[in-house]
Specification:
- This protein is mainly alpha-helical.
- It has one domain.
- A two-stranded antiparallel ribbon has the order 1-2.
- Helix 7 crosses helix 9, helix 7 packs antiparallel against helix 10 and helix 9 runs antiparallel to helix 10.
- The longest helix is centred in the middle third of the chain and has 28 residues.
Length: about 280
C-alpha cells in the first residue's frame, strides 16, 4: 500500500531512521530510569526500581507501541496490513526449518563443551527471568525493530546488501550501547569487538533469512532466541579434562558461529533467489 501523501517524504531510509530514533529514545528513557540503581546501589528504593523496570520491560513495550503507531500512520496501513508488512503475520515452513537446523551446531557444541568438563555445568542465576528476557527483548523486540522495521523499510529503496549492512551495523551499535556500564561507560577493546562483531554478522545473516523467507519474522526470532539461550549455561575451562581446555573455552562461540554458516548455506540452497533490486519487492 502506498504511503500517505502527507508523509511521502518519510519513506525508505528516512522512515527506518524514524523508527530507530523512537526506539532509541525509549531505550534511553529506560536507562535513565535505571541510573539510580547504579548511582545509589545501597538504596532499597533504587534496587526495587531496577527490578521493576527489568521485569516489566515497560520502556521496551512502550517503544513497540510507538513504532506500530508510527508505522500505521506513515504507511497508511490497517493493523493487519502492518503485521503482514513487518512479518509477524507471515509464516514460512522452510524458513523455520532452516532456523531449527542452524541451531543444531549450537546444541552440539554446548554438549561437547559440557562433556569436556565431565558434566560440570554452570547455570545463569535467575534463569526463568532470563528466558523471558531473551524471548521478549531479544527474539521479539529486536527482530521486529531491526528486521521488521529497519531492514524492511531500507529494502524499499536500496539493494539487499546495502540494506542488510546498514541494519546490521545499527544492530551491532545497539548491542555495544547495551553493554556499556551506566556509570563508567567503558569497555575493553576485546569486549567491544565481541559486542559489535558477532551482532553485526548475526544481523547480516538474519536479514538474509528474513529476506529469502518471505519476510517472515518467525524464523529469525527462533534463531535469535536459540543463539542467545545457550548463554544461560557455561562451563569453566579450568575444570576441563586434559587436552580439552580449548573446547571448554571456545565451544559455545564456535557453535554460535557455525549456526550462522549453516543458516547462510541453507538459505542459498532452500529458499528463493534474492531479487536484485529492492524496489522489485517493496510492496507489503
Amino acid at each position: 500500500m502506498a504511503a500517505s501523501r502527507r508523509y511521502t517524504f518519510l519513506t525508505g531510509w528516512r522512515l527506518a531512521l524514524a523508527f530507530v530514533s523512537i526506539y532509541g529514545a525509549v531505550i534511553l528513557a529506560g536507562v535513565i530510569l535505571l541510573a539510580p540503581s547504579a548511582l545509589w546501589p545501597k538504596a532499597a528504593w533504587a534496587r526495587n526500581l531496577e527490578k521493576a523496570v527489568e521485569l516489566s520491560r515497560l520502556y521496551m513495550l512502550a517503544g513497540l507501541v510507538c513504532l506500530f503507531w508510527l508505522h500505521r500512520r506513515l504507511m497508511g496501513m490497517e493493523s493487519g496490513a502492518s503485521l503482514r508488512y513487518t512479518g509477524l503475520a507471515v509464516w514460512s515452513d522452510r524458513q523455520v526449518l532452516i532456523a531449527v537446523a542452524a541451531l543444531v551446531p549450537v546444541l552440539a557444541a554446548g554438549l561437547v563443551a559440557v562433556y569436556s568438563t565431565g558434566g560440570r555445568i554452570c547455570v545463569e542465576p535467575g534463569i526463568k527471568r532470563r528466558v523471558v528476557t531473551y524471548i521478549v527483548d531479544a527474539a521479539f523486540m529486536e527482530e521486529l525493530v531491526f528486521r521488521g522495521f529497519l531492514f524492511r523499510n531500507l529494502r524499499r529503496t536500496m539493494p539487499f546488501i546495502r540494506a542488510a549492512l546498514i541494519s546490521a551495523i545499527a544492530f551491532g551499535i545497539f548491542h555495544l550501547l547495551n553493554g556499556l556500564e551506566i556509570t563508567s561507560v567503558s569497555m575493553a577493546p576485546g569486549e567491544i569487538l565481541k559486542k559489535v562483531g558477532y551482532p553485526f554478522l548475526f544481523g547480516t545473516v538474519v536479514a538474509l533469512l528474513y529476506e529469502k523467507g518471505e519476510h517472515s519474522l518467525w524464523g529469525p526470532m527462533l534463531l535469535h532466541f536459540g543463539v542467545d539461550a545457550i548463554n544461560l549455561f557455561w562451563v569453566k575451562p579450568d575444570l576441563a579434562r586434559p587436552g580439552m581446555e580449548l573446547v571448554a573455552r571456545y565451544g559455545k562461540v564456535t557453535g554460535q558461529t557455525l549456526a550462522l554458516v549453516v543458516a547462510v548455506l541453507l538459505c542459498i540452497w532452500l529458499l528463493p533467489v534474492l531479487k536484485k533490486r529492492g524496489r522489485a519487492g517493496a510492496g507489503p
